[in-house]
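Quick illustration, no need to memorize.
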Amino acid sequence: MLVVALLVARLQTVPAKDPHQGQFTDGTGRRCASCHANTPRAEDTYRAAARMKRMMTDLNKGPLARNGGITCFTCHRGGGPNRNMAHPPALNRSAVRTMLKKWPTTANSAPESVRQTMSEYSVSLGMNCEFCHIPPNWKTDTKPQMKITRAMETLMNEFTKYFDFANASAFKCFTCHQGATKILR
């Protein structure tokens, strides 16, 4: 009886082997039960995780193959500093408004929608306009960063293949970049 009790105690302390090698648990900061519990919420989370895994695999084999790809950690950052965030942080709209106020006077002829988008790019990458552009010829695309940005713009259209438009529209440059030019893997 004592041997059985010791075996049960030992089995309870040995963690279950993670078949994903931490890809999801370390990448998102979520426990296995977030997806693998017998609840409707876990089933929804499981379906969303399956879509994201499919998206990540396809993007890494396709448009991101030359750039090194992404992982769960790229966007989720291990659940944030307190490991309690299920979703990536959102773009700071206040920072975008501040960037709009700093808009270069030599580029004032740009439509409001372009100014908004460019300000989102600046905040997402943590850079100013000159990172991609050569003032005062703002439309020239001789810098390598401009070519990368054009490729990334087409990448943004890929998200609707995996999520309905409402959910896909939540993906912004900031989702992966989070204020840095290089993404984390």
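The CA atoms of residues 33 and 42 lie 7 Å apart.
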